[in-house]
Write a structure and sequence with these properties.
Largest sheet: 5 strands, mixed
Order of helices and strands: EEEEEEEEEHHEHEEEHEEHEEEE
Radius of gyration: 22 Å
Number of helices: 5
Number of domains: 2
Distance between the termini: 59 Å
Structural class: alpha+beta
């Protein structure tokens, strides 16, 4: 008899319990509830601590730990299915995208492969990338990575805060390697966007305007302060991977830095972070008496 039924979880029918084993909690299909409270229930005051999938089991799935997710929609037997895979490790510490049962993804979806390569590049590049990825993978909120590329800095930062359940979302194009003057491997761009998600989950995502500029179409674009934090993380990742630092947030068509610089001209030192890795309130540039962060 197959006991792995709803969501692939084991049905415990001993003593006629008829509960599904979700690891941390047991799910009672008769009432559509768990038999103990959600350990993250304080994050969702509007939901019952015994609810399953935010009372929307078609769109949401409860797992043993929230983390970095990708969602694909393959066609199986001429029907479109929705499959969720999270970034996690096995007992040997091997990271991969895994299903709700912990099995590593074995399919050929190009985007999952690209994201896995990007996350591995970040983790293997050095301590900043490793801490970024593993910290988000073990966070108490979801971070979903979807294909795409935001058309403005504010769009990227605001998209990071887009979640009905308090998590975060990241748009990433694995084939986009930057613009003139700011070329970068796509995994560095992924790290930049994940930095927005980390700020979102830490309640430090600052969407107040940093500066404005005119784009190539003559439209005024506002760059939020959140980009100061994200470019700081980006330069940490660049430095530990032996890549040139990002000097400015914006560049003109010839590739020359424009707008507000993020490092002091001709140096590897941050204009906004001190040697301890801290920024001033409202991201004011560091003072002369402060020792700047060196990448």
């Amino acid at each position: 008899m197959n006991k792995y039924l709803y969501n692939g979880k084991e049905l415990l029918d001993d003593l006629n319990l008829n509960l599904y084993d979700y690891g941390q909690r047991m799910y009672d299909p008769t009432i559509g509830r768990f038999n103990r409270i959600d350990r993250f229930s304080e994050k969702y005051y509007g939901l019952s601590p015994y609810q399953y999938g935010a009372n929307n089991p078609i769109s949401n799935i409860d797992i043993n730990g929230d983390s970095i997710w990708v969602v694909i929609h393959p066609t199986v037997d001429n029907q479109i299915q929705t499959q969720h895979y999270y970034w996690g490790s096995d007992q040997q510490g091997n990271y991969a995208f895994r299903d709700q049962s912990g099995n590593a993804y074995q399919g050929n979806n190009q985007f999952i492969g690209d994201v896995a390569n990007g996350l591995n590049d970040l983790m293997n590049g050095g301590s900043a990338g490793y801490a970024l990825v593993t910290g988000l993978a073990g966070a108490s909120d979801n971070v979903q990575i979807i294909p795409g590329n935001a058309n403005s800095s504010r769009g990227n930062a605001e998209f990071a805060s887009n979640s009905s359940l308090g998590g975060s979302a990241v748009r990433w194009d694995p084939n986009f390697n930057g613009v003139q003057g700011n070329q970068r491997p796509s995994f560095v761009a992924l790290g930049h966007e994940l930095a927005h998600s980390r700020d979102r989950l830490n309640s430090t995502l600052d969407l107040n305007s940093w500066f404005t500029y005119q784009d190539q179409n003559g439209a005024t674009q506002s760059v939020p302060r959140a980009e100061i934090s994200a470019t700081h993380t980006e330069n940490q990742i660049r430095a530990e991977n032996g890549l040139s630092l990002r000097q400015s947030y914006t560049y003109d068509p010839s590739g020359s830095p424009t707008g507000t610089r993020i490092i002091f001209n001709g140096t590897r030192q941050s204009r906004y972070y001190n040697s301890s890795g801290n920024s001033n309130p409202n991201f004011r540039p560091i003072r002369r008496r402060q020792t700047p962060f060196t990448y």
